[in-house]
């Protein structure tokens, strides 16, 4: 059974993103309006990044709460506070460094858990997903900061490219959900969700 964070990602966040994708496609379908199309694409990548960051933060919070609930009542507040203290996902992009910093607090190596710690990687698909998340964040920063110079990675900047980034976010969300399930089960002996 998936976490509440993953259920929300799959049942609310993904459908909302698909609606934005449909809007971007419709903008280009009849009479392309270059300025509007570019603005829609910028909004699209911003929303994708924001929703993925929201999923990651929700999952992290859910994990902290589960772990805290497995401790004596006198320790729960301290564990909850420390579990989210200086959390990278509260103020930075959902890049791999932020994911590592926040989720490795639970006592595991994220690269190893994803199968990307070795060369060649044990899980080449996850290695590709991490690379595509990096591209998404480059374009997210381009859009958010109104940069003039377009990123040189993740080209072409099309709806299909952003859909690929969404698919990578979805694959990593599913993998991270499973990793955290296993890690919390290892730490507590209980099934977290």
Q: Can I get a quick summary?
A:
The protein has 193 residues and is mainly alpha-helical. The protein has one domain (4-188). It has helices at residues 4-29, 34-69, 73-84, 96-103, 110-114, 124-144, 159-188.
Model description:
The protein has 193 residues and is an all-alpha fold. The chain is built from seven helices and no strands. 32% of the residues are buried. The model has no long low-confidence stretch (mean pLDDT 95).
Give me the secondary-structure topology.
Layout lengths: L3 H26 L4 H36 L3 H12 L11 H8 L6 H5 L9 H21 L14 H30 L5
Helix pairs in contact: 1-2, 1-7, 2-3, 2-6, 2-7, 6-7
On the 0-100 scale, what is the average pLDDT?
95
Structural class: mainly alpha
Question: What is the alpha-carbon Rg in Å?
Answer: 18 Å
The total of beta strands comes to 0
Number of domains: 1
> What is the terminal separation in angstroms?
6 Å
Compressed to H and E, one letter per element, the order equals HHHHHHH
- Count the helices. How many? 7
Measured as a percent range, the helix fraction is over 70%
Major β-sheet annotation: none
Q: In one word, what is the shape?
A: elongated
Q: Hey, roughly how much beta strand do the residues contain?
A: under 5%
The unreliable regions are none
